[in-house]
Amino acid sequence: MNLGPWEIIIIALVVILLFGAKKMPQMARSLGQSMRIIKAETKGMRGDDEAEAKPEQAAPAVQQAPAPQLPPSTPEKSPEQMKAEIDELQRKLAAQDQAQKNAS
């Protein structure tokens, strides 16, 4: 589809008549902001793709050091113990809130 200068002028006039001349600068500004956002996002996506590709290519040439040994983890608390801790913290918070209300 090839648009000539007369078709572009007619389209511009229709757009001005539909939206009004006062809203045209606002529409152009928002269109520009949208284009900037899209450009930044696509640039970021390309950067992510390149960053993911580079470590894969460089991985065979670099030897990785062995992972450090972590200390054995402490056993997790039971749900009842966690609930008791939460209740205790909530009581402390309520006491502090009450003390602040009394001070004011």
Structure description:
With 104 residues, the protein is mainly α. The chain has one domain. 72% of the residues lie in helices and 0% in strands. It is built from three helices and no strands. The longest helix is centred in the middle third of the chain and has 35 residues. It is elongated, with a radius of gyration of 31 Å. The N and C termini lie far apart (74 Å). The model has no long low-confidence stretch (mean pLDDT 81). Part of the twin-arginine translocation (Tat) system that transports large folded proteins containing a characteristic twin-arginine motif in their signal peptide across membranes. TatA could form the protein-conducting channel of the Tat system. This is Sec-independent protein translocase protein TatA.
Q: What would a concise description of this structure say?
A:
With 104 residues, the chain is mainly alpha-helical. It has three helices and no strands. Helices cover 72% and strands 0% of the residues.
Which helices and strands, and how do they pair?
Elements: H1 5-19, H2 24-58, H3 79-103
What would you call the shape? elongated
N-end to C-end Cα span: 74 Å
Give helix % range: over 70%
Number of domains: 1
Describe this protein with a few key phrases.
transport; 104 residues; mainly alpha; 3 helices; elongated
